[in-house]
Design brief:
By secondary structure, the chain is α+β, with helices and mostly antiparallel strands. Helix content is 31%, strand content 22%. Strands 1, 2, 3, 4, 5, 6, 7 and 8 form an eight-stranded antiparallel sheet that branches. The longest helix is centred in the middle third of the chain and has 21 residues. The N terminus is likely disordered.
């Protein structure tokens, strides 16, 4: 009897589900400029109705490249070119792969707008070389089967840079926009709301005469050459500005302290946690904006409602923010929460 009971108990033990495999991230690059709103990331967003289109016809050395963060085993690659309603399909050029992004092996040639192939070994980079053409390069979609899942661009976006006033800042600006493009999905997930469609094009300009750090108007980000020359590691400031692009509040009635607080909340608690710095409970206040409000939002979100920031963002985005919203969401006023927050830091 004892043995049977023991065996029965063993079979009742819960089976723990394995964590889903982490998706490998990718970046897309091209020597060709984008035409209109047909951005590069549309070529790997899982939507056959969107596509990349080049501004002008490609030459013999031009390319369109998809690069993974790490080499992975790929079972098959299929690339479809041409516009969804016809035209500009690629009938020459090559599809090549590389395990290190340096040495490429030709995998297939394009015919009737398509190229497919089965690579051997691991792949880190996939490149389309169209060669000289009499029409723009149009890539509708990459389809890739692999042992490890690859993250498609769920929120496609393309940043452009203007460093004409400080050409020496080009390398820094290119790194900044790559970081912001990579953080774009996270930012949109944190601030998502029904019916909202994020911008797909963002312009970043560095100016010598700008006196602050950075500012955003619509999809235009302006940064100070002097500041970023003196603080080259402060990419978080540009992530903060990218949050403003995603917020896209259409009313001026939202409290500025909360608008900036949400941007710093995403920056300091989602992008670079642990870097917010010390908070003095005797001097801070919930509506102090930026880091102060960010820390307050983190406290309230952690204790009362993990979706608090998303709900506040939705209200501001729809022009429905009101002071009573804090009590509706937490059963306490903002001032009561402020007193509780500051008291918690003194314990």
């Amino acid at each position: 009897m004892f043995r049977a009971a023991f065996v029965s108990l063993a079979f009742c033990l819960p089976i723990l589900a394995a964590d889903p495999p982490k998706k490998v991230a990718a970046v897309v690059e091209s020597s060709l400029k984008t035409a209109g709103g047909n951005i590069r990331q549309f070529a790997f967003d899982g939507d056959a109705d969107t596509y990349f289109a080049s501004d002008g016809n490609p030459g013999k050395d031009d390319h369109f490249t998809l690069r993974f963060d790490e080499p992975i085993a790929v079972k098959s690659i299929a690339v479809t070119t041409g516009r969804p309603k016809g035209g500009d399909s690629l009938d020459n050029g090559t599809l090549a792969v590389s395990s290190d992004g340096k040495a490429f092996v030709e995998l297939a040639t394009f015919k009737d707008g398509k190229a497919t192939g089965t690579p051997t070994g691991k792949v880190q980079t996939i490149r389309v070389s169209p060669g000289e053409s009499t029409h723009p390069l149009v890539i509708r979609e990459f389809k890739i089967e692999s042992d490890v899942p690859i993250a498609t661009f769920r929120y496609p976006v393309e940043f452009t840079i203007d460093v004409s006033e400080a050409p020496e800042m080009k390398e820094w600006a290119e790194k900044a926009v790559r970081i912001c493009e990579r953080q774009y999905p996270m930012i949109n997930d944190e601030l998502k709301s029904d019916g909202y469609k994020p911008a797909t094009q963002v312009a970043m300009t560095l100016k010598k005469d700008y006196k602050g750090v950075a500012a955003t108007g619509g999809t235009q980000i302006v940064g100070s050459v002097k500041y970023f020359q003196g603080h080259p590691d402060d990419f978080g400031a540009m992530v903060h500005e990218t949050v403003h692009v995603v917020q896209r509040y259409r009313t001026r009635n939202n409290p500025g302290w909360l608008v900036e607080g949400v941007a710093d909340y995403v920056r300091f608690f989602k992008y670079e946690p642990g870097k917010i710095g010390p908070i003095n409970p005797d001097k801070v206040k919930y509506d102090g904006a930026y880091r102060q409000t960010a820390a307050f939002l983190n406290y309230v979100s952690t204790k009362y409602d993990k979706d608090l920031v998303q709900k506040l963002n939705k209200a501001m985005r729809e022009g429905e923010y009101k002071n009573d919203l804090w009590k509706e969401l937490t059963k306490k006023t903002a001032k009561e929460l402020d007193e509780e927050w500051r008291a918690s830091m003194k314990k």
